[in-house]
Amino acid sequence: MYDLTVIIPTFKEESNIGTVIENVDAVFSDNAINGEILVVDDNSPDRTIEIVRELQKTKPHLSLVVRKEDPGLSQSVVEGFHTARGDIFLVMDADLSHPPARIPTMLDGIRNGNDIVIGSRYMEGGGIKKWPLRRHIISLGATFLGRLLFPEIHDPVSGFFAVKRSVVEHAPLRPRGYKILLEVLGKGTWQKAKEIPFEFVDRATGSSKLGGRTIIEYAGQVIDNARFSWNHHESIVWQEWVKLFRFGAVGLSGIIVNEGILIYLKGYVQLSLPVASIIAIELSILSNFILNDTWTFRTQQQHAMPHWWQRLLTFQVVSIGGAAINFVILNALAAFAGIDYRVANILGILIAFAWNYWVNRRVTWRRV
Predict the structure, then answer these.
(1) What is the spatial distance between Cα 132 and Cα 51, in angstroms, rounded to a whole number?
(2) What pLDDT, on a 0 to 100 scale, did the predictor assign at position 134?
(3) What is the pTM of this model?
């Protein structure tokens, strides 16, 4: 058994595979890591397999699996999960875009109690070099969709990550496309994840496998993860659905609070409409905050904002922003697009709700 297995999926990587194996091997030696290197190849027609087999003569910890059916990067990684002999798996590309020097940091992250450690391009300290605009746009779009399921993870579609064997050992993974991490996050058994920044460098040699089919497969993967969560309430995605539902229920209660207070202050206390309206809005915001803080997000163990008044202030600002969004959309659609004001108002409310949830989830009640 090994402490770590580095899984490298390959297809036509003859120009890179030797270098990446030597680099990973050097990291093992320099950091006294009891590690295995596992290359999972999709029956490459070039010299990739030949190069790996030649290196195996001098590296007993280098293993090779050649797959001849159901090709695909994600499929290869899952095959690696089943074949690996390490207690911890680390997945990285063969094209030198993922730095082997970060392997010890990721391994330490798992040893320190995390179930998954993700190399992140989109957190502070991370980045991407030498990508054309098209790839930037596609990657940001994929990341946005992934963060709808996992709001606290900056880069849920990274191809560079480490994971405990127990996370994926019994997970019903249905691999497709290139975003295997999303599948692991959605169907694996985990509670604690950590991200570390790294700078992604686009391949120097060989060609990218990104294409239109990849984008379609990814969209299907997002939908499949969402559908999976409805029947597996222990999943992280389902926990996110619960928060979204509770946030919506609290929002509806806020409408009732607002309406009730407005009727009372205007009809019985006989305050002017502007004054009664301001008080009703503020009290409904306060009611929404208390319910969200004690019910919707009560499972958040450690808030980035430790004091309730900090969260209240942020929630207040976000709520004002949501009200402004609703106002602008209502008037713009009614005045310039000719849409019935009642329909325009509903659209404004929905977009404002999405704003309120997204920003509060990522800022007000963000976990440390």
Answers:
(1) 31
(2) 73
(3) 0.79
